[in-house]
């Protein structure tokens, strides 16, 4: 009787012992997208500056890019190369944020094509050993009668569908950035414009704020990034409260 119960106890204890954890690698973030991610106008460079604790990254945003031009311009091969070159030392994540240029009528890209292009990119990144993260596009900051224009609704919807179909994580940057911009209003939002009347691209101040929105979404998605993203609680709190920062 004693023997039996102690055997049972042993079995229970053994089962409860967690496996030896794999040494955790720091994350690497490779940022793919259009000019709203790219250097000089996007949030990408500012996001890279908040990485710490051995985390790294590279901004591969391309001004004017659609999913079609990015794929045709060997962007996927580039991302795959970055993942395979870094996967020994890092957990590799690739953010995909497109839509601003894809939705222009001159691009001649249907929403179905846009969605399948995002799925294609996701599959290639996964095959290379990376984790794709689809971001819905950063909001523009144009208002009509005090209400923020919802001008990226179709590409945001297609981005969500692509993430769901590909079974990859989706961070709703469009919703988060819209909520913040609507809350602060148009005249404060104008202070983030890269140039007068440019309600799409970001100056350095804007890049800092919207990179923090991305960082907060990333951390909410995966709390394990704690220690790899430098916190700025004051800025995060203001964004959450919809107070101009
Ligand atoms: C748009 O794309 C479709 C399908 O790819 C093609 O048949 C059509 O010629 C294109 N239109 C223009 C104006 O480029
Ligand atoms: C904005 O306000 C003007 C003036 O009140 C009005 O004529 C117009 O229809 C409004 N536009 C929208 C989209 O609500
Ligand atoms: C997507 O929405 C925008 C803004 O409403 C519109 O201008 C564009 O024509 C739409 N594109 C497609 C392909 O549906």
TrEMBL record:
It holds the Pfam family Lipase_GDSL_2. It comes from Dichotomopilus funicola. This is SGNH hydrolase-type esterase domain-containing protein. Residues 1-22 form the signal peptide. One of its GO terms (molecular function) is hydrolase activity. It comes from the Eukaryota. Keywords: Hydrolase, Signal. Gene3D superfamilies: SGNH hydrolase.
């Amino acid at each position: 009787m004693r023997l039996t119960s102690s055997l049972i106890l042993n079995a229970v204890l053994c089962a409860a012992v967690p496996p030896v954890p794999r040494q955790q690698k720091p994350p690497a973030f490779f940022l793919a997208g259009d000019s709203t991610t790219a250097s000089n106008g996007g949030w990408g460079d500012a996001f890279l500056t908040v990485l710490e604790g051995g985390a790294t990254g590279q901004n591969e945003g391309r001004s004017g890019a659609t999913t079609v031009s990015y794929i045709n311009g060997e962007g996927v091969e580039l991302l795959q190369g970055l993942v395979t070159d870094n996967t020994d030392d890092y957990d590799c994540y690739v953010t995909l944020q497109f839509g601003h240029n894809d939705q222009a009528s001159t691009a001649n890209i249907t929403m179905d094509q846009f969605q399948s292009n995002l799925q294609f990119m996701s599959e290639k990144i996964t095959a290379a050993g990376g984790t794709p993260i689809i971001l819905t596009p950063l909001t523009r900051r144009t208002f009509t009668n005090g209400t923020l224009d919802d001008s990226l609704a179709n590409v945001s919807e297609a981005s969500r569908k692509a993430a769901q179909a590909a079974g990859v994580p989706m961070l709703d940057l469009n919703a988060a950035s819209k909520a913040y911009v609507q809350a602060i209003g148009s005249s404060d939002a104008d202070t983030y414009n890269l140039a007068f009347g440019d309600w799409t691209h970001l100056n350095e101040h804007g890049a800092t704020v919207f990179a923090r929105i991305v960082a907060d979404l990333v951390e909410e998605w995966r709390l394990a990034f704690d220690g790899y993203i430098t916190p700025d609680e004051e800025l995060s709190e203001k964004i959450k409260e919809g107070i101009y920062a």
